Amino acid sequence: MRYSTSSNFLRLLLIHILAVAPLWLTAQENAHLLSVDELFRLGTENSLQLKKSKLQEVIYNDQKKSAYTDRLPDIQVGASAGIIGQPVIFQRGLSHPVRPETPDWSQNYNINLTQPLYQGGRIQAQIHQAELKEQIAALTSADNEAEIKLALLQQYMTLFSYYKQREVLARNIEESEHRLKDIRRMKKEGIVTRNDEIRSELQLTNDRLAYQEADNSISIASQQLDILLGLDESQLIAPDTTLLYTAVSVSDYDTYVQLAYNNYPGMQIVRQQTLLAENDIRLTKANYLPSLSLHAGNTLARPLSTTLADMYNNNWNIGLSLSYNLSSLYQNKHKMHEARQTVQLQKYAEALLMQNIRIQIRTAYTRHKEALNRIEALKLSVSQAEENYRIVQNRYLNQLSILTDLLDASSVRLDAELQLTVARTQAIYTYYELQRTCGML
């Protein structure tokens, strides 16, 4: 009797392997195995949001270069030519006009140079402003990149759940088919009723429908990732399952908080915005100070402006120009107050973000620890559910339990395995979420 049971088990196992293997191989051949590194690389390369951020960096870089050119001299070259009208000279009041001989054509060629020497620090402040904006743009790109990676990872983790769900349902379908055969055999022998056969058929139908839904979910999730990664939309994506079993080291809460204060792009952006507000104070103060510049020029013209003799005249000049805007004494008062208040506003924003960072890290840290503990607990639950299903199945085949107990045991085992997969994916996601909040993603 033992030999017969063992032979039947080996025969059923062989049938199961031969039935599932072709489907598994076909799925593996058609699916593109995508690692996390490739996911991040393709996602950042094809992200329109990231391309927009990178383009903003280029724009601010050009603005910085333009700000540097304000320190260079302003050079103007000009030329003019025209017809000279007949002059009329009145030597005795408005009577007896005299029309002297004059040339009919005038020409003027000039070059002027203005070199700013002192602008109250305005030029240097404008350069610093452009540099800060460029740094903020770069930090924004880094922040967007990290956010994109985390969003991609969430969809990637969802694929894990769908594949696991399909795998478990495929096994349940195979077992349901064998169970239905056994029930039909037992029904012919008069051991069970038609009711057990109907319930088993319903369970098999539900499992097949759930399998089809899981398969469709894989196709939908793959298509979404294909679009984001720039791949063929019809390409199925298979996640790297080794990621679920990769051991990662977790630091303590205070370490993550300190890392976030130093590396989180959002934190650095707020600090740069504070520096930008402080720089606006220096720009506003420059309006209170005088401006000094060096100017030089050369002019070649004909005819002579004094005698209108038809001859070329060349002259040059060089000097200093000093100006002070007296109206700034009353026009700039409220601007200075606004600039100082903006600095204080940015400091409050920086302190508020530090509070939010601590909250985010504590949440992600706690959820990560929770997921790790849940994995260990669910490992035991899966083992117990497997053992429970085996016991109930044997009892049912020996007519010591009813079909409802067997179906309940199968459902408990299915839920336990799916919950374990969800816990594994949640542990990976919360780990990367910690890395993102710390600026390490």
Automatic annotation (TrEMBL):
Pfam families named in the record: OEP
Coiled coil: 368-395
InterPro entries (alphabetical): OMP_efflux (IPR003423), TolC-like (IPR051906)
Tree of life domain: Bacteria
Keywords: Cell outer membrane, Coiled coil, Membrane, Transmembrane, Transmembrane beta strand, Transport
Gene3D superfamilies in the cross-refs: Outer membrane efflux proteins (OEP)
Gene Ontology cellular component terms for the protein in this record: cell outer membrane; efflux pump complex
Annotated localization: Cell outer membrane
Keyword Protein transport: no
Main localisation: membrane
Molecular function terms from GO: efflux transmembrane transporter activity; porin activity
Membership in a protein family: Belongs to the outer membrane factor (OMF) (TC 1.B.17) family.
Name of the protein this chain belongs to: TolC family type I secretion outer membrane protein
Upper classification of the organism: Bacteria, Pseudomonadati, Bacteroidota, Bacteroidia, Bacteroidales
